[in-house]
Amino acid sequence: MGERRTWADKKTEIMSRPGVGAGYEAARIRFELGEAVRLRREQLGLTQAELAERTGLKQPAVARFEAGGTMPTIPMLERLAEALEMRLSVQFQPLREAS
């Protein structure tokens, strides 16, 4: 039987594989965008169906987005921002400052 390793060691090994970092970063972005939309929707007291109606989407599409299942386009983010009574702000950050 092999030696037991910590999750941090396993994660480091996995993240060092070619292409994994980019995939992880894309998943992180999708998750954070979805979470932000869900939190704002809940603040406004909207259901997924109500947000879908405001954006011209179907409720399952909103659910997928909130779960981090889709990478949105800028126009989609603009529609969501408007429906959530917010202003979309896209910015670049140096890698050493990005979380």
Automatic annotation (TrEMBL):
Keyword rRNA processing: no
InterPro entries: Cro/C1-type_HTH, Lambda_DNA-bd_dom_sf, TransReg_Diox_bact_type
GO cellular component: cytosol
SUPFAM superfamilies: lambda repressor-like DNA-binding domains
Sorted UniProt keywords: DNA-binding
CDD domains noted in UniProt: HTH_XRE (cd00093)
GO terms for MF: DNA binding; DNA-binding transcription factor activity
All residue ranges annotated as the HTH cro/C1-type domain in the record: 37-91
SMART domains the UniProt entry points to: HTH_XRE (SM00530)
Gene3D superfamilies: lambda repressor-like DNA-binding domains
Protein's name according to its UniProt entry: Transcriptional regulator
Organism this protein belongs to: Streptosporangium minutum
Lineage per the UniProt record: Bacteria, Bacillati, Actinomycetota, Actinomycetes, Streptosporangiales
